[in-house]
Task: structure prediction
Amino acid sequence: MIVIRNGKSAFKRSLRDLPIGVEVQLTGIGGSFVLSEKSDRPIVMIAGGIGIAPMRGMIEWAAHEKLQHRVTLFYSNRTAGEAAFLDEMRTWEKENGNFKLVATITEGYDPRWLGDRGRIDEKMIAKHDPDFLNSQFYIAGPPAMVAATWQMLVAMGVDDSAIKTEEFSGY
Result:
């Protein structure tokens, strides 16, 4: 699966304009932003916008492998309409007692929105995960959001070694 936020770049236009069913050649997946099979610590994932892509993969993999990871996902979008995979995440939360979704929007008013409102901050994290100092953190999203969240967590007392990050730039 390829997950992108629609944009104006030539690459995004090329992907958007591909006919359904066309074959493409991709290089292998790489990087170190992966979920460990073993975890004796709770996991807190913080995703901004399309930063949900790697989180979705990790959560789905953990469910498929029936791992006992306790995962809390904080998922922030400007509006409810921009929240990719939200219905899927809500279904997984109902099916998996070890998975908790904290979805939030930062702009606009939608009377149908049942999640949190506002940016992910210290109060929101402490409210939904009082044991956050013992957690392993994964942060993915736009570079400014990732940097600000990392700084906030360190200021909250989270050890730098307990934070993994992935930036999604250029979208």
Remarks:
- Residues 73 and 146 are 15 Å apart (CA to CA).
- The first strand starts at residue 43 and ends at 48.
- The mean pLDDT is 87.
- Strands lie at 43-48, 71-77, 99-105, 116-117, 136-141, 163-167.
